[in-house]
Amino acid sequence: MNSSPHTQHTSPINTRYSTQWMAVTALLMAMNVALSSFGVPVPGGHLYLNDIVICTAGILLDPLGAFLVGGVGAFLGDLFFYPTPMFVSLATHGIQAVVISLCTRHLAKNHKSVAAGIGVTLGAVIMVTGYSLGRAFLYSTPEYALLKLPFQILQAVTGAVTAMLLCFPFRLSTLYRHI
Question: What is the pTM of this model?
């Protein structure tokens, strides 16, 4: 076994801007745009499934890729279909994805699923807090933010749990590492 630095990989994709990195980032960003553009109707509101993509990107990608998928993808989805909260989405989902990525890469290095679990939990708190504060500011009513709080919590939990299932029991993170 050759132990030269050229054969060891510290990340699934050795060059940050490789074709593979760009393709995966673009695919996940497009999925985020699509899923942030429409919601699943639930009693009293809508459930958006783009948090699944944002949390998955945070687990799989480096912080830059995660920010592009999470922040820029949600921003574009809002820009195309409902522009009022687009800057709230950029900041909130961007920070959410970066925190998940950083936790997954730097906490509990021998236990990626534990590190990712901490990351998606922190990401869920960031998303719920960011959107609650953003709604209170945009619509000038804390009551509106409180009214939407259960949907934000449901969206955050759905995204975090589904991403963890996709990446670990369903082995998406293993598949991604073998690209």
Answer: 0.88
